[in-house]
Specification:
Blueprint lengths: L11 H4 L4 H5 L1 E4 L8 H8 L4 E4 L6 E4 L7 E4 L7 E4 L7 E5 L18 E5 L4 E5 L11 E3 L4 E6 L4 H6 L7 E3 L7 E3 L11 E3 L7 E3 L2 E2 L5 E3 L13 E2 L5 E3 L20 E3 L10 H4 L7 E3 L18 E2 L5 E3 L13 E2 L5 E3 L12 H4 L5 E5 L5 H6 L1 H5 L3 E4 L15 E3 L4 E3 L6 H8 L1
Protein name: Leucine rich immune protein (Coil-less)
Keywords: Leucine-rich repeat, Repeat, Signal
Organism: Anopheles culicifacies
């Protein structure tokens, strides 16, 4: 038997994810025990088509052909080890979390309308064969986040090869597993793939060649990559590359087909130099994030280049590097709006920054070694918040003989508005 404490009030965070139309047809229960079978759904659902179960102790899930349910979400299913799925043309979204399932069951292909399948925080381990997804021809989103998968392959069996299905998969989420090597060639059966998520694995290589004309997002955050070579990826639609929190010591290679990046996130790596040749290809790049690397400058030091333009760059993040001078020599950045340079070693900032970058609306800088006279010359920009400075962490500070520096709270900055003569300083001590 099953029992159902039904709660009318749902967590606000969950409600905010649903539209008004969804709420009208959604049933939410906090816990359920016993089999989730035909009798369970008949007595519970009524005219509802969305079911969200926060916790279920059931060991068996049964979906019959006449079950009209559109969406089934079980947030915690710690004992669910059997799926009985009959041919069904209604169920489109299936999410199972915290379950002991160790793989995909063949009866999933009976869910002919299935578009979203997520098996997260389960016990799927070892090698995962992406060919298992080919039988789900309407599937657009697949997630096995937070499992134990160590290897990804594509090995279609004879039956699937004869069917030659055209996969509609758009989002593939393999994050939070233990994958060390990923070959892009395993994606060849998914020509409509739009987003690939490999974050929080143990990746040391991403290699291979592939033609993925629709891929827009690549997420390889929090891995162990020392290099990222995408020159074999014919991915002309790639817009967003997230590769922060790796061990990259060379700038990524994008080849000739990837020329339309908009966001490149390389924060928290080991980059010491830029690759100007790769950057200048990206004329639509609007966000470049290079915080927490080991850069000593952001100048064009390429012997073959004296001036490089990034026409669309709006945000440049250079915080926590080893940069001493923020002259940005050799860069034309006509669209630059935000420049972040929270660098303790920073000593020099050019006075003509706003002249060179007229659209700059904010310079954010923690720079205790910047000359006090520079701050005095640019005090108006600090007061109108174009320059967000912080050159002393707390209290008043004396910087150099004859300077009186005080913290101005509303800008969080130490200003040196005047220089006092030695005689005045002597008199004030008296």
């Amino acid at each position: 038997m099953w029992k159902l404490p039904v709660f009318a009030i749902m967590l606000a965070s969950q409600v905010n994810c649903w539209s008004k139309e969804q709420l009208k047809v959604t049933k939410v229960i906090m816990s359920a025990s016993g089999d989730l079978d035909e009798r369970f759904f008949e007595q519970l659902m009524g005219d509802k088509s969305y079911l969200n179960v926060w916790n279920s102790e059931t060991t068996r899930l049964v979906v019959t052909s006449d079950n009209p349910m559109d969406t089934l979400i079980i947030m915690e299913a710690p004992r669910l080890n059997e799926l009985v799925l009959y041919p069904n043309v209604h169920l489109k979204h299936l999410l199972l979390r915290y379950c002991p399932l160790d793989g995909l069951v063949k009866s999933l292909r009976n869910l002919r309308a299935l578009r979203v399948l997520k098996l997260e925080l389960c016990q799927i381990g070892g090698t995962f064969n992406l060919a298992e997804l080919l039988a789900l021809q309407n599937l657009t989103t697949f997630s096995v986040e937070s499992n134990r998968i160590s290897e990804i392959l594509l090995q279609p069996d004879d039956a699937i090869e004869e069917m030659d299905p055209a996969s509609t998969l758009k989002i593939l989420d393999l994050s939070s597993n233990v994958i060390e090597h990923f070959n892009l060639n395993v994606l060849r059966a998914f020509p409509m793939l739009n987003e690939l998520v490999l974050a929080r694995n143990r990746l040391v290589t991403v290699a291979g060649s592939i033609f993925l004309q629709t891929l827009e997002v690549l997420n390889v955050k929090r891995n162990l990559l020392t290099e990222l070579d995408l020159s074999g990826c014919n991915c002309s639609s790639l817009r967003y590359v997230y590769a922060s929190e790796n061990k990259l010591n060379t700038f990524p290679l994008f080849g000739d087909s990837i020329t339309d990046l908009q966001v490149l996130d390389l924060n928290y790596n080991l980059l010491a130099v830029l690759n100007v040749s790769e950057l200048k290809k990206q004329q639509h790049l609007s966000t470049l994030m290079l915080a927490d690397n080991v850069l000593k400058s952001f100048n064009v030091d390429d012997g073959n280049e004296t001036m490089v333009e990034l026409a669309s760059l709006e945000l440049l993040e250079l915080s926590n590097n080893q940069i001493e001078s923020l002259d940005l020599r050799g860069w034309q950045l006509p669209a630059l709006q935000v420049l972040r340079a929270m660098n303790k070693p920073l000593v020099t900032i050019p006075d003509d920054l706003l002249e060179r970058y007229p659209k700059l609306i904010r310079l954010a800088c923690f720079c205790p070694n910047v000359d006090c006279e520079w701050i005095q010359r640019n005090v108006e920009h600090i007061r109108n918040h174009k320059y967000e400075m912080n050159v002393a962490q707390q209290g008043s500070s004396q910087l150099g003989k004859g300077y009186r520096c005080v913290t101005v709270p509303y800008v969080g900055c130490v200003l040196c508005p005047f220089r006092r003569k030695d005689s005045e300083l002597t008199e004030s001590v008296r």
